[in-house]
Structure to design on (287 residues):
């Protein structure tokens, strides 16, 4: 699955960049750009995209963590200090949230204390608000976790935008999902850096919603992780949005399988041979 035409524009644009009730809005920082804008920018970059395919993967490449854009989907791309999100105005959820987690970004002095979730005024109304979650029975579940953004005050504040959150069962948010977030930080420290994409999974059929703004409740969540240290490798995880306490390997899937379920194309900036190889296998013992 290749989307080189669209992805050349992604590589040319840098990333400009849990369960508390909101009382005050933190300042909203960072802009957004639509996939339509990126598609127009890509029109002149076809040759450059083919050049990128032939290069060896570069662990410092801007945007290597970003999935391929889907211009016909109506997604809105939001660039934040610590992550990039694809937003879905129909579900009031992110389609996916992607970020480059370095060893240095696993620590910092900007904690979450006192920060409340906030509406993202960069997306159109109706949009998720704190009132939608109140008494819903669901946590405001971070996709890009707060603890991955302690390195920057701006990044920390932006991690609490609702465009980085989904309704999530508390036992999952505070349990196995949190354990995997901690594991990713351990991997970033071990290897120097990793690339992560996370988001909701919506199966076919009608979906439960919460609140006046009808925020969709995902049936499950995915996370895919890429490591470029030494021999590149990747692994995927799928978590049902339900109670449970299971070992990490109970959630393991290949990235190919996560792509099949979600319809997204992960890590398209990699050369074809590398992408095909790392996405076809998943062995937690190798990590």
């Amino acid at each position: 699955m290749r989307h080189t035409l669209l992805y050349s524009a992604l590589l040319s644009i840098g990333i400009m960049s849990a369960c508390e009730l909101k009382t005050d809005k933190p300042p909203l920082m960072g802009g957004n750009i639509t996939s339509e804008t990126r598609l127009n920018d890509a029109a002149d970059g076809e040759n450059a995209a083919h050049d990128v395919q032939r290069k060896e993967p570069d662990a410092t490449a801007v945007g290597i963590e970003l999935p391929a854009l889907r211009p016909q989907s109506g997604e809105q791309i939001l660039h934040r200090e610590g992550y990039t999100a694809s937003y879905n105005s129909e579900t009031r959820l992110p389609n996916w949230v992607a970020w480059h987690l370095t060893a240095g970004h696993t620590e910092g002095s900007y904690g979450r204390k006192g920060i409340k979730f906030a509406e993202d005024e960069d997306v159109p109304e109706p949009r998720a608000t704190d009132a939608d979650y109140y008494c819903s029975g669901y946590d405001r579940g971070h996709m890009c976790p707060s603890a991955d953004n302690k390195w920057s005050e701006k990044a920390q504040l932006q991690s609490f935008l609702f465009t980085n959150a989904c309704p999530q069962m508390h036992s999952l948010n505070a349990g196995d999902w949190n354990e995997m977030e901690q594991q990713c930080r351990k991997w970033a420290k071990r290897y120097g850096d990793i690339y992560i994409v996370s988001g909701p999974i919506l199966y076919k059929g009608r979906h439960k919603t919460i609140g006046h703004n009808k925020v969709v409740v995902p049936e499950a969540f995915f996370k895919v992780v890429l490591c470029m240290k030494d021999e590149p490798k990747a692994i995927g995880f799928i978590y049902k949005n339900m109670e449970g306490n299971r070992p990490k390997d109970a959630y393991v899937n290949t990235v190919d399988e996560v792509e099949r379920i979600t319809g997204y194309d992960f890590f398209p900036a990699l050369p074809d041979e590398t992408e095909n190889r790392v996405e076809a296998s998943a062995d937690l013992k190798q990590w």
